[in-house]
Amino acid sequence: MKRATLLLVMLQFPLALFVLVVSVAAEKKPAPKPCLTSGCTKITLAYTLGSAGTVWAHAINGEEVHTFEDKSGQVAKIADTTGYVSNTEAEGEKNVDAFLPKGCYDATQKPTPSQLQLIAEIVAVLKANYYKMPDFFWTVLYTAQKPECLNSSSIPQYRTVFIYTSLANALHWDRDALAAVIAHEVGHLQDKYCGEIGQNIVANAGQTPLQQVCEKHADNIGIQYVVGAQNVVSPTGTLLHGVNPNGFTITFQTLQGISPTGAGMRYSSNHPINADRITNVKLALEELCRKNIPNACQYAVPLSE
Q: What does each C-alpha distance from 78 to 14, 84, 211, 250, 278 come to in angstroms?
């Protein structure tokens, strides 16, 4: 009887282990790459060898160069099931107000229910992703319609993305463009070393060179998140389709039309210039298509077009 029981256990155990391994493998997702092109890699390596990059390299080697305190648990307590936190409750809101130029943020104004629903649907398809994505929270801040207020942001401590109505209005609340904006900010959360070290070396090493690298990383990661967005069914039974990564191009073209950035700003701006970012979208999509990433080829457009 004991031998029979032991044999049964031996026969069942490999099967159970196989099912477990298959299940874990099925759940494992690839992490998005901060660099998709050789140009991005060369830029990153160049700054890694520079003064700002030296600090960054120390972080990669495990040395303590930042003191970020994870406060996302505070946000989780007040977020709804979509990750939304009302802008009167958003943890870190005062931090965002400090980042914005004076007169941009208006705490007395609120986004409309339809605007919140649109963002919630975009977040839903982004979170159902082919790639590994950090769980994040989001909120919408009402901001003045001025060129200096056209932005968005994210705060790693709170794992929260802040969408500004000024930029959303400029984009006419276009679904694909807003998905690009949100995915870019989640890219900053995913590329946490870049964001954390970048904020800590501003006073010592200067922000512009490293910040440009960080912004390109966030663009690349965001492009992968948009390509990897999956169709999902909403709680009401509506099928929500994925999004088009060319929303990045729409965003950069819109920003270029409002606040043009020329080649002369390539080395002085803390963001890559819009023309370079548009080119990078095409390069990134071509690379993802070459690697046979699902959905990428249908959006890839040759640079000559």
A: 44, 9, 31, 33, 37
With beta carbons less than 8 A apart as the criterion, state whether 137 and 158 touch: yes
The answer to pTM > 0.85 is no
Domain span at residue 214 reads 31-290
89-142 residue pLDDT tens: 765 566 666 677 888 988 888 899 999 999 999 999 999 999 999 999 999 999
Rounded to whole angstroms, the Cα distance separating 251 from 248 reads 5
3-state helix, strand, coil in the chain (%, to 5): 55, 10, 40
Q: Strand pairing of 137-141 and 160-164?
A: parallel
Which has the higher per-residue pLDDT, 154 or 28?
Answer: 154
3-state secondary structure of 137: strand
Q: Kindly state whether residue 150 falls inside one of the protein's structural domains.
A: yes
- Distance separating alpha carbons of residues 81 and 79, to the nearest angstrom: 7
26 within a domain of the structure (yes/no): no
Is 20 within the bounds of a domain? no
More confidently predicted of 209 and 2 = 209
Question: Would 5 be classed as within a structural domain?
Answer: no
DSSP label at 293? -
Specify the long-range contacts of residues 59-65, CB closer than 8 Å, at least 24 apart. 59/193, 59/196, 59/197, 60/193, 65/197, 65/200
Number of domains in the chain: 1
Host H or E run for residue 223: helix 208-227
How far apart are alpha carbons 53 and 31 in whole angstroms? Answer: 23
| Interstrand relation of 239-240 and 160-164 (parallel, antiparallel or unpaired) | unpaired
Spatial contact of 218 and 196, defined as CB atoms under 8 Å apart: no
